[in-house]
Amino acid sequence: MHLSFAELARDPRFVPAAFLAVSTWGAAFALNARRPLSRDGRLSISVFFAGWLTSELPLHHLVWQIAATVAFAWAGALSSWLGWLGLAVSLGSWVVLLDLYGKARQADGIVERALVEALGSGYRARAEEALLAHVPPEPALGELLLPFWMRRRDVERVRDLSYGAFGRRNTLDVYRRRDHAAGAGGCPVLVTVHGGAWVIGNKAQQAQPLIYHLAAQGWVCVAINYRLSPRSAFPDHLVDVKRAIAWVKENIAAYGGDPGFVVISGGSAGGHLCSLAALTPDDHEGASDLEGKDLAVKACVPFYGVYDFTNRSGLGRADLRGFLERLVMKRPFDEARAAYDRASPMSHVNPAAPPFLVLHGANDTLVPVAEARLFVQMLREASRAPVAYVELPQAQHAFEVFSSMRTAHVVRGVARFLAWVYGEHLRAQGERAPRALAAAGGAREIAAESRVGKAEPILRP
User: Fold this and answer.
1) Are the CB atoms for 163 and 170 separated by under 8 Å?
2) Domain parsing of the chain, residue ranges
3) CATH number of 107-459: 3.40.50.1820, 2.30.30.240, 3.10.20.740, 3.60.21.10?
4) For 279-318, what is each residue's pLDDT tens digit?
5) Between 20 and 30 A from 296 (CA), which of 8, 33, 252, 461?
6) pLDDT (tens digit per residue) in 150-190
7) Is 275 exposed, middle or buried (0-12, 13-18, 19+ CB in 10 A)?
């Protein structure tokens, strides 16, 4: 016998049972965010999506769970023991969500300790002050309430500049302060490389909180597209990243940037590519147009990157090799071991590596955190430059894609690290910060209205 929904709804046990089901659903998301249910195989991908938004937006989840509880209670959910059980489950879920929020707030201290360990307790005194002035220690309310709205009134975006011959996959966007004057002196430059497992993604989908934060401070930021698999095979991706660096060195002065100070960052596959680019500036990857080009960067900041295509340590994902063979490398590992080794940042650590700030979430179910730890260990053993490592408790993969409490503190920490690199660069060159940075100093207050105002214009040179 099949009952209609209306008949089920008239059953006095229906509302309490529905409340228990919704409560259990919410609690499962919270618990998975705190401790991922799987770190291997296909299930780990679903675990990532379930834990990602929950771990970064625990208060948003808390609000909807409280709202659902109030609604169910008003509808009579507490008329049965099933409803009271649902309430107990909800209360437990709220405790977990509050704990997630507390861990996110600790990111500030975690990042600061990592920077002090790598750079010394007096590193802030050596950081370029003009890049850190007027930045409040806590994120604005608008950053937290509207996590997916990251634009700012004081930052403009020049879209879709071509740096290569492969259409929109060889385009980039330049972000800079709206009041930036190109003639006021070149400002430091950040190049960002998006992720997406080398097969998806574009320049506007990642690093937006970092880009807007740094651009508001006076940086000139460049977000790039690059060719993707399976249409393209590695090292086409890396060749494009290096072509973009070459374009920046040759053209960024026209947008107010300093071609003599370029740093690079990226997340996931972008973390892999930016690390490779930073470690191999003299390798032109067989591209004749890159011969003789200056491809060196002053620092590298990879987020949750893949650092080894060979899985030499056994710490990486067991299923990554098959994915690389089918879609990215397009060659069997056993027949092309040298190519896989060459594609691995771990194979290129060297004494001349630039300063690195490596960031990874402890709960990352897509790229094991142990791989980042080994990469950092290898870098520290080989490089003469500082290597800072930030491991964030209960953070998932892609944790800084949108605004959150953790993202805000991490972005501020990255800004401090890069301000230190820039300060060291200026001292080594016997230079001062350009007038464009000093002029921007009084207009950097981060406020909600600066992020939710007029729509940004689409600019072209």
Assistant:
1) yes
2) 10-105, 107-459
3) 3.40.50.1820
4) 999 999 889 999 999 999 999 999 999 999 999 999 999 9
5) 461
6) 888 899 999 999 999 999 999 999 999 998 765 556 899 99
7) buried
